[in-house]
Amino acid sequence: MKARLVVFPIKGRTWCFSSSIDSATVASQSSNAPSTFKDLWKTIFSSPRKTNNASDGLKVELVVDFAADKMNRAWTNLEKAPQGTLKNKIHWVGLKLLSRVKPTEIFFKSIPKELKCVEITYPSSLNPRLVRRRLRHIAFR
To answer: What PANTHER family does this protein's entry cite (predicted)?
Structure first.
């Protein structure tokens, strides 16, 4: 999976970060997650009784992916709600709460773990070492 990170300074120490991920790979990944709780249950408990740390980690990732997929679908339904309905008001409150989250946190959460290649695009006026150091600093923070 490949991703492109675009980095550019806005003013002083304020920088803008954006990511784009190959959409074909993202679509194939979301199809791997079970769509119903019944499918999730079967997938988790159909494996042999002997467990090790690696298989436990995969099961946890399956549950996390399942929950994230459900939340994304629910958020999309809230977005599409007609104006003035309770769902629309819940969506508005959610947006207000999300506005309090740091943009860099949202940026790094949007990057999947399974990346093989990351292409970083930045203006030629910036020092490449400075860009790498800034990304590393934000990631560790």
So the answer is: K+-H+ EXCHANGE-LIKE PROTEIN, TRANSMEMBRANE PROTEIN
What is the 8-class DSSP label of residue 35? Answer: S
Domain that holds residue 113: 2-140
Find the length of the chain: 141
Q: 135 and 120 in contact (C-beta within 8 Å)?
A: yes
Model confidence pLDDT, tens digit, residues 50-72:
556 666 777 888 888 888 889 88
> CB 91: neighbour CB atoms within 10 A?
17
d(CA 84, CA 112): 35
pLDDT tens across 86-102, in order? 999 999 999 999 899 88
Question: Cα(17)–Cα(6) distance, rounded to whole angstroms?
Answer: 6
pTM greater than 0.70: no
Say if residue 40's pLDDT is above 70: yes
Rounded-to-integer distance, Cα 18 and Cα 8, Å: 9
Q: How many domains does the chain have?
A: 1
